[in-house]
Sequence to fold (242 residues):
Amino acid sequence: MNETIAQLLNLQNHDSEIDFLKTEAAAIPAKVSAIQKEIQTNKTALETAKKELIQFQMAKKNKDMDLDTRETAMRKHTGELNAVKTNEAYKALLGEIEKAKQEKSVLEDEVLQLMEQIEQAHKVWKEKEASAKGIETGLQKQISNWEAKQKELEGQVGQKQSEREAASAAMSKKLVDPYERLRSSKRSNAIVPIRKEQCTGCHMKVSQNLLNEIRRGQKMMACESCARIVFLEDVPQEAKPA
Fold:
């Protein structure tokens, strides 16, 4: 491998490392956002559990008020029985009292059911409340770790970019500029090896003439298909039998 190719590969290695670090750093905000979403989901679940408990409590309160209304009506009508003067009025009051009794019985069953629902809802809410703090603490720790990792990666990017700039400054502008253009247009490696007479960038077979020119090593050569700079890898020779 000639010195020109070695310099370009060194520059490309710097770029590949920088790209990798940037990709790793760029993925972290999405991970942090997902954790924050999980925290909010847990908070919403806790709030929902509390709201359900309150709804059951309010429903029971309303049923208790309805029970008081029925009991008041029963007492009122019972007191009126001695004051009525006609049989029809007496029967009407008995009907109202019986109706209130039936409604009261239904309400009492509903109150009992609501009390069971309140007990269960209260248990669910307390369980979520007890675990919520620990869960959120753990998730916040994950966020802190990811944010620290992002700063670390960004620091590494800055260091690698400085090294890359130094490597680029040590090279001829006639080498760097074509490389930069190729890398920009291909959005990937600009210089690739040839293996088994194929360009490893586009996987197309190269001509024998191109292989011969590369072996002469007088100038840089480009793949006829993708225009990437190509070179022949140093292949260890097989040991010859004695």
User: Anything to note?
Assistant: The mean pLDDT is 90. The two ends are 28 Å apart (CA to CA).
